Amino acid sequence: MKRPLMRAARALLLAGALLAGACCTARAATISIACSGVGQELEFCKGAAEIWARKTGNEVKIITPPNDASERLALYQQLLSAGSDRVDVLQIDVIWPGLLGSHLLDLRPYAKGAQQQHFPGFIANNTSHGRLVAMPWFANAGLLFYRSDLLQKYGQQVPETWDALTASARTIQDAERAAGNERMWGYVWQGRAYEGLSCNALEWVVSHDGGSIVEADGRISIDNPRAELALQTAAAWVGRITPAAVLNYAEEESRGVFQAGNAVFMRNWPYAWALAQAEGSAIRGKVGVAVLPKGGDEGRHAATLGGESLAVSKYSLHPAAAADLVLYMTSAAVQKDRALRGSFNPTISALYRDAEILHANPFMGELLGAFTSAVARPTSATGVRYNQVSHQFWNAAHDALSGRATPAQALARLETSLKRLSRRGTWR
Ligand code: GLC
Known about the structure:
single chain; alpha/beta; D-Maltodextrin-Binding Protein, domain 2; 4-stranded mixed β-sheet; globular; binds alpha-D-glucopyranose
């Protein structure tokens, strides 16, 4: 090659190297985000993350952990305790900030006050040792979905008590089966041995005024006659108005049965509304949403508080970009879109005055009280041992539902093992 040509080639190479350098000093990053995939969750998470990537010149990589909350927690614990940088942003359950907080970044310096738009209770929940370890993304509360067309056809009211639900479910199930729909069931819910069963069983117990497993002062309260009655009531559904397969149902399995038109009632989270009402749904226009029934006239309506947040792993190599993604995904604009198209309840209070959101999801306005008075699982009292408490609670409930133990036996055993776990009421 002649000298001037060589010089030109060298200059080109140098310019190329400089350009490549320029790309990286602009700090374009690939941010991996773990989103759950219940219903439309994954599609929505991916869509918003990709919009952020296009806007900022970064890239996103979507990771799909198991949908089952308990399995997802186990995976996160494995990744985080190994200090892995494989996941930058994690979708975390409302019950996990205390468990995972030490592995998560304090988002306050990045949020710059954005947290003030969110429900204060959610922010308090996501604050661990004074650090804001996750930004609230959507709120959940257990709801009763019902087939308004079938209640009307058989002259039934929306049930106020579990006994009324049991009777209506039975009447409609039997009549529909006699009319040829052999697959009809009365009531579907989440009965698999996992966190979702703890949510359902807590609702049964609280609605019967049977306490909330471990009380705020650390006292174990679960072995009591009202809790026993609550479990008896639920166990009596299995095989009668509820398919025995419910013992292996999580959220999506129960929604599958309800949305196919094969159940009168369903307990689920708000996301099920948008899907039930979607074009092509067999039950579109035939669904109502109500508070879950009371445990007898003396009991009360109870919904377990759920919900999800987005957090940044302390081991992320790109904390600033990851935090920026979290703030975008949890912003009012994205939460509004998720509410309109996916019936995900916002965590930003002003959005509950948004006419479009309330029109798309009437229950968000009508049942606001169910959300604001929803029952928290005993995470504050039991701290880092909550997951073990819940594990024992769902196993006890599962034993009672499957007939492996009577409700009385299951609760007595549970009380003993919780005492052992708490070292006589000291949880911390
Ligand atoms: C939903 C709720 C979460 C709960 C889980 C149980 O994901 O948001 O709080 O733990 O369901 O399955």
